[in-house]
Amino acid sequence: MRKIIFLALLVLSAGFNSCKKNLTYHYHEGIAEGTTFHIYYQSNNDYNNAIDSLLNYFESILSTYKPNSLISQFNRQTKDTFETNNVLFWNMINTAAKVNKETNGAFDITVAPLVNAYGFGFTDTLNIDSALIDSLLQYVGMSKLIINGNKLIKTNPHIQIDGNALAKGQSVDFIADFFESKGIKNYLVEIGGEVRGKGKNKHGEPWQIGIDSPVDNNSSIEINTLAVLGLKNKAVATSGNYRRFYYKNGVRYSHTINPKTGYPVNHTLLSSSVMAYKCITADAYATAFMVIGLDKSKVFLKTHPNIDVYLIFGKENNQYQTFASKGFIVQNMDK
To answer: Is residue 115 part of a domain?
Structure first.
């Protein structure tokens, strides 16, 4: 299922059509990781083909939908030890382990068996009942993975990992780091709604992105921008439950699964946008906050001042309520 973009870029296409007059700014768009991407960068060289090659390589390592990818090989493997020196793979594992520890298990990539059971992963939906959930929970938990040098060890052969909660953010960093290696000082990378920007756009202004109002509709293409964020040398990732869900036998199933209970989350938090220096970090924390909910997210932020958030939660008087940390400066569109 294609991930819906929660962050809408506030860049008029007409403005970038004028880039033909200024060859130092380039624009590239396409499909990757089952979603769309939009990339802007200033350079005297055209790196569009290189970008495509990098994104194809990224999928060959971390796409659970490609049967021969490195992560798919790990998931299929029934012996306990998986050995690799791939930097992308270990960046995902180490970041996941760090965020898992800091969020007391709220973020957990071993949730793959549960995600698959609910039909949000890389296998068919199963018939959900408490017995099934209990049987799958025995395979969930980062403590069931052991990191030993370049070896990742399964304590149970049925353990699988799902990197989708941070893969989009990681791929954004992958392209942004490529631009950094080329000395590019002005760029914006957006993949599946996750964004990282540096410098300014072709008009000499900071990059701007929009944060959408929640629309509880899987098929809706309506976009209502709730707030605008000026992005400067930072990354932003958003997680939300208001578009990726389905109903079965009258029960609503959202795609964010609590790894401790085995069930989809059910609370007032509708969307969490996280700003950080790395998009993989922002992506992971955005998912974690959707798991723990509004109140626990606020408590967490008190001891993690390096993380900034914009949270959208339940309606009051038909209006969405929002919470923004000190460093997440936005302009509300309804004011």
So the answer is: yes
Assign 74 to helix, strand or coil: helix
In the chain, the number of structural domains is 1
278 token code pair: 């790395």
Tokens of 154: 């399964």
Residue 175 contacts residue 189 (beta carbons within 8 Å): yes
Domain span including residue 84: 67-163
Task: Determine, yes or no, domain membership for 101.
Answer: yes
Q: What is the pLDDT along the chain (335 residues), one digit of tens a residue?
A: 333 333 445 443 334 444 444 448 999 999 999 899 999 999 999 999 999 999 999 999 999 999 999 999 999 999 999 999 999 999 999 999 999 999 999 999 999 999 888 876 555 555 678 899 999 999 999 999 999 999 999 999 999 999 999 999 999 999 999 999 999 999 999 999 999 999 999 999 999 988 877 765 544 444 577 778 888 899 999 998 655 433 344 444 456 889 999 988 888 888 899 999 999 999 999 999 999 999 999 999 999 988 999 999 886 666 788 999 988 877 665 54
DSSP secondary structure code for residue 204 in this structure: S
Residues contacting residue 112 through CB under 8 Å, at least 6 positions apart: 64, 75, 121, 160, 161, 162
| Closest residue by Cα to residue 69 from 77, 170, 311 | 77
216: left (phi over 0), alpha (psi -120 to 50) or beta: beta
CA distance 212 to 18: 27
